[in-house]
Amino acid sequence: MVTHNRIRMFNTKETYPEQKLDNDLCQVVVARGAMVFVRGQIGQDLDTSQNVGVGDVEAQAEQAMKNIDMLLREAGSELSHITKIVIYLVDPRYRETVYRTVGKWLKGVYPVSTGLVVSALARPEWLVEIDVTAVIPE
Description:
The chain is of the alpha+beta class and 138 residues long. It is built from 3 helices and 6 strands; from the N terminus they run βαββαβαββ. Helices cover 25% and strands 33% of the residues. It has a 6-stranded mixed beta sheet with strand order 1-2-3-6-4-5.
């Protein structure tokens, strides 16, 4: 019995060749057909793997939210069903810009939110990473 649906599977050796990794991951897991866990999204086009908005935290946050919207739809959910959001910033001065951008996407949703300032993300050009948990409505 399959209890998880994995969407957009990939291996890190293709995504991060310079890091010599070999991990099987995916962008989204739908658990028991109701819970959606979206991998942390950054300023990168998921279809081309091209970085978007290098040096521009607002453009990176916008791309991350665009990715989250697309991935939730692929999983059978949508932004309005987000229950939790976690935002990782490499600089606390980016908070207002990023939260303003995210707020445009999540107006009226009211998710639980956690914000963290971290020393770095997986690549030095990434300034913000956003992950979400959502549900699939019955």
